[in-house]
Queue: 4 jobs
Job 1
Amino acid sequence: MAAEGSPTEAESHHEHSSMRNALAETASPRQAPMRATGKLRVSALVTILAFCAALPFISPPDTFEFTIVLAVGLAGLGVALLLEAGLISFGHALFYGMGGYTVAALAPVFPRFGILLLLFGGGVGAIVAAIAGLFIVRYRGVFFAMLNLAISMVAYSVLLKSYAISGGSDGMVVQVQGLVGQALGPGAFGRALFYVCLGSVIVLGVLLQCYRRSPAGWGLGAIEDREIRIEYLGVSANRLLLQAYVISGFLGGFGGAVAASAVGHVAPDDFFWTTSTVLVVVAVLGGRGVVGPFLGAALYELLSIAAARYLSNSWEILLGAVILLVIRFAREGFAGLPDTWRAASLQWRRQ
Amino acid sequence: MLDQLVSATIDGLTSGATLFLVAVGLSLIFGVLRVLNVAHGSFYAIGAFMAAVVWSLLGAAGLPSLLIYPGLVVIAIAVGIVIGPIIERCLLHWSFSVEPQSRREVIQLLATYAIFLILEDGQKLVFGTQPYYSGGALGLLGTTRIAGILHTNYQLLLIPLSGIVLLLLRLFLSKTRSGRCLIAVAEDAEVSATMGVRVTRMQTFSFTLGAVLAALGGALASPAIGVTIGIGADMVVLSFAVVAIAGLGQIEGTAVASILIGVAHSLTVFFLPILDTVSPYLIMLLVLLVRPMGLFGMQRQRSI
């Protein structure tokens, strides 16, 4: 297990930061995009976002589904972030559920906060992640995956037992009904929530992209490649991972809070491993990067609509099959499909 | 007080006995294939379901009920032999050659997780969502009164039975040719391949053996529990806790850890019911904080 390799206090700040920059330069040059495709990507992204913003007008009754896609995408983004460090969490439902329950518990206390409560959901997710993370980030691989699962299962059973606080298996009603200090009707609130959520997705997406391109973000890829090397550079892998874990907890909590406000109800199932499955599927299906998980969430939603119509009893079989197919044939997820195809065609031509 | 302590300990030993069978299978698969089989709990659940179904079939066919005992073992072997090779060959084997190695671990976790999802839902389709009970099989061997509390002989027999399985497994691994090959593959697959060990065959074999052990645990436990959807998910986390406490790949350690978990769990049920579901994980947490590789695990070398 990795020992604490944090830089000593004697080490000057300049030296430290130059090491980190060296780390940023050496880690995974494969991900550096070319300038021209970068511009293309930005314009494509703007088009997609504009299209998303128009969605509630194109199909008003589906605003709820669109909001859920964004919420699940945000939480899936948290799982995908850890995936960059080569770690998979089977227990992110913990943060998702915490976010939802936080909103449910605080909404009657601060009725005028309205949509601001979403930030509390994210905040509690981050705090829980910071506490659990102190323990969890010391582990890698199977331990990381299973300890996450174990903690979320414990939270689930504790929640079921503490009927007085959490409503047990009945769950709780979420009464978020407006913007800050201003109540809205159900339809208007649904639309407002969607736009608030879309706005947060953009803000959080940009922030997250900045983080991914910072030395700390590059460090995540380096943890996957060769962890011990970055410790020789004087950077603590565990500390990098803890940062990522807290960010990921925030995203999970925020996503859960949005979903709870949209649905108007939280239930212990939000903590159950089936919810973690959704987040894993979304992250794996979408692939790495900031856009991937939202793509994954949209695909997941489409898949679940199709499945509800044709195979309502074998939903998880379908999910399992999708995961198997994606990791077998499109390892970088749907967002990475162009790269996967390019690599495959290159190899084919060489043969 | 003392009576309660005694009977809690006996309860713990019996549940630890089936837990050991499942966990040692998980440990074996990890030792040889380096894969943490998330679908392991599903093997346990399928074994339990099949046992309950066979029990009701026995009743319906008018056959002597005592046939259930050899039946349980046959069921476990059948389940493992049918499921194990198919899953290992068709769904898992391709992942052994994934490079780089750091990526392989995530992919294998996801693969077994996907198999777990498929099997969990498959159980719903095949067995329905109603719980199965085969409690009748519990009383056939009579009961014994220990410290004032009746225990079924069946459950008491589970303890020596698991001991026998442990002994057979140890004898197989250290005395037979294929057992030694298995250990060689667990140590270093490449080197053992150069020595003429059929690595692929060993991998399939150990996965199947692990599946048989998990199904055996499920089949033996089924008379004592209500067999419902969801026992597989609980079991995989619990058996992982056992294996993590023991150290991955440690067979005798797994026995010690399952007794520890089983007894600690039943003691909390008796004396501190508020902690009953959490106690295995608390123990795991404590052990991992002090010894990250588990009680009997060895520190692995880190390569640069």
Job 2
Amino acid sequence: MPKTLTTETLPESAPEQSAPLNTVPLRRARRERILSFVMPVVMLCAAIGFWEFQVWYHEIPKYLIPAPSVIAQTLVTDGPSLMASAWFTVKLTFFSLLLAIIGGVILGALFALSRPVELSLFPFAVILQVTPVIAIAPLILIYVDSTFAALLICAWIVAFFPILSNTVIGLRSADHNLRDLFTLYNATPWQRLRYLLVPSALPYFMAALKVAGGLSLIGAVVAEFVAGAAGQNTGLASRIIESSFRSEIPRMFAALVLVSLLGIAIFLLTNWASRKVLGHWHESELQRES
Amino acid sequence: MTGQPIIIMDRVSKRFGETVLAVDNMSLTINEGDFVTFLGPSGCGKSTALKVISGLLPVTSGTITITPPTGETEQDLGFVFQDPTLMPWATAYQNVFLPLKLAGIKPDQAGPRVTEALKEVGLSKFADAYPRELSGGMKMRVSIARALVTRPRILLMDEPFAALDEMTRSKLNNDVTQLAKEHNLTVIFVTHSVFESVYLSTRVMIMAARPGRLAAEMSLETPWPRTEDWRTSAAFSAEAHRISEALKRTLDAEDIDH
């Protein structure tokens, strides 16, 4: 058989070779990055423009469908009061997310460490998860004096479960050979947790965080809806209800825009956190070159 | 070349559950400086035997005596798994540092030793690389560096090169024997490759399956460590033939049993 020359090198020596200066993939990647930012922005602007045009062209009254410009105007004129409500919802959402993380991680760790604890407490977690929060919220609002605390509990119930279940799976997902290795080197339980189980669980935890971030906002909004517009300090959802009672449609839209922006902010934040934590090693967050 | 007994297995058995007898009545004395391979078909209990020796699995009956270490060592046993078994979130350096970190050694004290271990396996330049950035062979080198960083006397290797290509495998075979000689290591190497066992070892233990047991022991008298030239010599072929025949006899006997 004739010997064929190939351009392949041995795996051992491959990384030592200096890469030839080929800028085409780099340029392509850059273009891809710009496009991935520009395209959604262009499409969004086009949609808003189309909306504005349709409202103007058909002369749709603002109590039916307000034009984007009217919504923007409302955002400015009602700005201070809407911002106060937005701040309330932000606090509620992030506080409940924080509690969900703390509760989910602690309980998840207990579940992962002890089978009896898991068996005895898991049904409660499932009941909390499968019962729609909107059905429990009125009860919680009756039993808990502070409205904020009641809303917090509702939002927490929704956000808590993904963190719990993923933490349990994550802590159990450590490679069995690595477990053996830690046994061989006489690792203490604390070392095992810190250097093996927690890093192994991180990808699962970050995935749960992305879900729980969105859920905590949903939980907060749903709870506010149930609580209604009562009270001094109210969030964006309460403002939406309040505006609907008064048929102030532009303000409903303005509050809705703020809720959406908050949701987007949470999404970006959790994605950024995930990339920050996993970006250098985990498949899910690796940047592919091609 | 070989010295005092370092591992003594006396009628060791390992049973999983009621039915599976993974290792049956295995008695074996391994001397300091021996390079022993456990050779046998899949499921003959060779990996189990290795895990029992390492203490990762308790014996069901019998005793394993490992003579107490004399020198300075954090962990007397180095273990290299079939997969590189690296922490994907940690760099090559951090992976090699792990055994010393678990032994409570401070990073500044451990530093020179980790660097030295990486140098010995030829990966000085890749200390800061993550496992995903390394080739299969390089990952295995990190795994070997990690096993050596505690200055063990005994190195246990569980089919470490089975998943590697032939060229990388030959190179690592040479490197492992070289390291074993330099550090005066006693090595137990599990493999199902006759050629690998012939090239690497001073003693070949042929194992038979169901139940897993020692079927034959063969010594290789060719000076050790061997050179690349020997791999293509007639003498190598003859040794490989001799071991293959013994292995074949073992397998045939099994077929008659069942």
Job 3
Amino acid sequence: MNLRNRLPSFNQILSAYAVIAFMLFAWALLWFFWNIPSWTKFMTLGYLVATLSYPMAASFLESLTILALLLIPAMILPAAWFRDRFAARGAAVTLGLLGVIMLRDYLIVVDNFLLKPKPIFWLTLSLSTALLLFLAVKFQWMEKALTLLAERLTIFLYIFVPLSVISLLVILVRNITL
Amino acid sequence: MMSSRFSRRDFLKTAGTAMLPLLFPRQALGLESLLRNGKKPNVLVIVLDTLSAPHMSVYGYPRPTTPALEKFAERSIVYHSHYAAGNFTTPATASMLLGCEPWTHRAINLFGLARRDQVERNLFRRLGDSYHKIAFTQNMLAELLLRQFHADIDQHLPFTFSSRDLTTLGISQHLPNDSVASFYAFDDFLATRRENDGPLAGSPLLGLLDILRKERETVESDAYPLGTPFNNYYTYTNAETFQNILQVTEKARQGDKPYFGYFHLWTPHEPYRPRAEYLGKYKKDGYEPVAKPEHALTETNRAEKNLLRLRQTYDEYITDVDADLGLFLEALECSGALDDTYVIITSDHGQLFERGEHGHNTALLYEDVLRIPLIVSVPGRSDRVDVRTPTSSIDLLPTLVVRLLGQVDLAYPGIFLPGLGGIEDWDRSLFSMVAKDNSAFAPIKHASLCMIQGTKKLIHYAGYGEYDGKSELYDLADDPNEMKDHAAGDQATTARMRDELLTALEAANQEVAQSS
């Protein structure tokens, strides 16, 4: 079997990627807008747009990195474990990993809640991800729900991907010609 | 272009320049011999962040916090009433490097920037090509300003120069062509968080990496029981920093051109981390500062006992820094640098431990947060001069321009410092302000404003709800602790000073509105 055959189908990858991208872009945009009231006190619109281009590009690269990290086990492990129904299982792992990190970040700010010591954080991260993955494998309704969610989120890629490409160009221009 | 109106300030500037040969006696042999050989002196500016002059024994503080600077002062010009134009790094440093008040340059917000049309007035550009210009800071707020002036600096040392353990990713310093926007994107947003204060890291993964790195900051050691000095981005030691500055400046001294070096250190900014031999030095030393009533605009609301403890550690940290600074100054003397280099020791702003407030990024503008050191060693000069008339951090730029380039630049509102070519002027009005919550693009309406004229000091509050429009008037000669507010008793002086202050503010507001 060649390498390409070991990959999930393009549509499955796209659906899983949509979940990753949605979480990262939405998070970055949410907190970017949280910052805007203080930044607009001293930043011009041009500067604000230039600054926004970095989070957009970073989210894009980050989302590709996470997708690559999901594709590796999909290719290595037996197909039934992870590659089959990649959209649902990829979405489950993404929600588990990113969800716990984001929740932790959020709790630090709203409640000064710290998942300390570090082993507890890593344990929570691993258990949550494993639990979601288990649910996605074990229960069909869960798998369907995750697949449905992933498919619905692909619409956002029509915004995120062009935005990322423009952002990368802006960064390139600012760092080469300035 | 010179203004058609020749003001009193302009007259004093021009007169001061004309008197330069008279004001510099023959004992300034180093400078005289330099000038005779057609050489220009080097300039070394050391800015110690958050160093309050009222906490320094060289200015009469009861605790012996600065013995090394006291020694250095014996061969220097010591300014006793030198004021910062702002009470935190951004406005204060911008005023020093742009030679104007914050209401003009508009770097008034935390992490703020100077107006684009003001950037070209920066000191580095003003010195032109005749100087090799070096700049370094450990304070990110000042670094942002230096990044704005980057094109005018020949040797802009990295922010992490002289660092030990990095606790943040510091991505923006790897993008030198877009270091300001990338700072806001990465170092202020994507990869960092301000715990308790938000915002969250914009990137969960970069933020996670940032968290993992941060734990290094808390490392304690026998030498540093409270932890190694830390500037929110990396740990460092003052001894190493001074040693590195010495290496850079000694190398610059050997160059074809004279150098101008601006070194803005983080020390003694909080967290206060004195070495073991200084920690506890002032515990139970019997010193009791005047207890002052809590102010309505105090933000930290600290108990007096807590403020005393913080003050003690701050004083111990100043003593620690002074020891390293003393070794640095001795090394300069041994190398002969003091014979061809102006050495300027100053700060950007002070620090408050009174009225319930600890810190400096506050609405309050009392002496401890505004009065900063200025000690200038002139090449070859070995006598002490004490200047007691009020001076401002905006005076440094025009003074250096006239001293180093022999040019009078009336475009800057500052005067030539007395003792360095200027004339003592007790009637002059100095301004300081904080308007951190006001938009830099809008007229300044939410601010604390301060005017000093002779020994009189007016503080005026604008846009603070119930405190809006209130003024306080102090006579610093009789009441250096600012305990007796004369605003109600001396309404004529209060009204006159307030009118002058608000007229100056209005003029600046109009100028900004017209230029934008």
Job 4
Amino acid sequence: MKQKRLVIRTIILLVMFIAIGYTFYNHFSEERGLVDQGDIAPNFAVEDLDGNYLELADLQGKGVYVNFWATWCSYCRDKMEYLTEYYTVYQEKGVEIVSVNFNERAGIVERHMERYNYNFPLYLDEQRLVSNAYGVVSLPTSFLIDENGVVIERAVGGKSETQVVAALEKLIPSN
Amino acid sequence: MEKVKCDCGHVNPYGTYLCESCGKPLLDDNQSLADMRYEGVARRSQTYSKSVVDKVWNFFSSVKVGIWIIVLILLASMLGTIFPQEMYIPAGERASTYYEQEYGVLGKLYYQLGLHTMYSSWWYMLLIASLGISLVICSLDRVVPLHRALKTQRVTRHKGFLSRQKLFSKTEKMEEPEKSIEKAEKVLKEKHYRIFKEDGNILAEKGRFARWGPYVNHVGLIIFLIGAMLRFFPEMYIDEHIWVREGEQVVIRGTDGEYFLRNDEFIVELYDEEDERFRESFERTGGNPVVKTFQTSATLLKRINNEGPIGLGTEFEEIMQYDIRVNDPLTFDGYSLYQVDYKLNELSEFTFTLQRNEDSSEEDLSDIQFTVDLFNPELVYEFENGYRVEIFQYFPNFYINDQKEPDTLNRIPDNPRIIFEVFTPEMNPDTDRGELSLVGVQVNEALNGDNNYRIRMIDVDMNHVTALTVRRDRTLPILIVGGVIFMIGLVQGSYWYHRRIWLQNRDGEIWVAGHTNKNWHGLKKDFETITKNTAIPMPLDQTDDWNLIEEVEGVKGKDDSSTSK
């Protein structure tokens, strides 16, 4: 009888604590992105300023650093400065940088490109189809995608040069 | 923790005040009247405290704790209303500065204590969660033993139980007590009492159902809280916000990129200031325009699900067109789009012309007119007479950044500045540097020396922007069910009374006792009817000093006093 009572009490308390705990976890934990670590990166197709077509799936076998940015975002500019510096070095090691603009038109991006002289192509996402599918809500947001197309990290916010290099280093394909 | 066996043979749990079956007082509490709360059953919580589970259980089982939780919630909720919550401060204001600016030191403190987002803070949520736990455990801990006690109650009660009821009396030895009891039974039946008989004694009971009212009420409240809890899950509840410019198509947030909305046209109607009928009202608003209605003519689109990649090549199909107005949302697939706000006259296009600075110009440049789309500017404008204007740089929302460089805050043309480069027919745009000028609203500066040409703004086009709330609320049915059950419980507990009357034949004496959970006056009236029709006397109210029942009879309020002295 006492045993039964204890079991019933434990079950009721557990159910309530788990429900409440899960709600708290869901509400307060750092929000998991729509696309996040461990997910298969959704395939997307974009065009750069010169009209060159790129599909993520075509980069299978390489590490891919997908960076969402905008011309008005100063943290993005800092980050892209570092990326410009290391682009060719890591391209030789099998890491591609895919810079996807967030919601701006070609003309604006083109002038920005001229002003800052990035050496990697800038892809457009005027209707935010790609950034939306990737759950991008603040800039810059980067996705580190390994050679098998799996997201190994979702990085939100400004990054230092060391952090950017460390991220690129992680992306070097193992074979 | 021994069980207690009563003289009548019933085995009661430890901590029982009154035997669940015959009602014999088991604990000597030195009170002249029996404590009838919860039928004198053992509330488990108050008697066992062994393992951690029991201790936690007992903590939440205490009504005292429950009341404290409610008091704390009330106080906290009051705190949250002193200044507006963050979501109600004017759009664009930063909470970190707004509260101090607006409310001074107290405002700063309010912000620092996190009271500006209090209702979603961990501690407030924890309080509400504790209330939920307290409700469940308090109710379970009381309703289970109460239900058992009322189910196992015997007709023949212990003398100690009867004599310690609030309403009690007994007669002298009388002739044929059975007859009186039989008569009383008839009277009580007419009053819709349920009669239970045993050895010539009767128990008349009605409205036991009312005793479950509070628990039904609590079940409703718990369902309501569960509904509120589910709002934290996007599957159940989405509350998002989108801004859509006229002519623009945006993804509807919260729909996983499946639905898109195009703003075909946005209109605002104002009340006619000339109209006599509105004159008084306009005087009150100080002559400011008053919005009559605003509406977004929108087209809902859905992404066609092809297996290809996201982005390029995405196709849309139009689902429907709808005029969204306040309180007239566009509803689709469980989502609703509500009209909530708008921004009028956002800059969208500038039209310019080129002029020579010297008046002596023979050249006619008035043919040179071009329009710059401030969201999607063309970079080069070429004209038949060989002139060429290029956009050298464009800043939709101009400011000078930390590095002392011109920059833009965002992509919205709230303060657009364009640097134009002008090439005359003689110049080669690939090798020569044209005249540069920075042009904006009320701004026109030459950047590389004195300019021969001036770019003059001749027209401005503006656009309206609509703000819509995206909402999906699947918790509403749960909240409604909870609310309805809550009300049923409330009515059940308020409009019915649980009355019991015991009439017992003890060796020729008739023992009369009565109990009700509320409205003692009503119970006394029932006794009066018995007294009128039989030889059974009116029971005395033992809480009245001097037993002056006759004199207080009919005086309301006195009758409702509690059982304890």
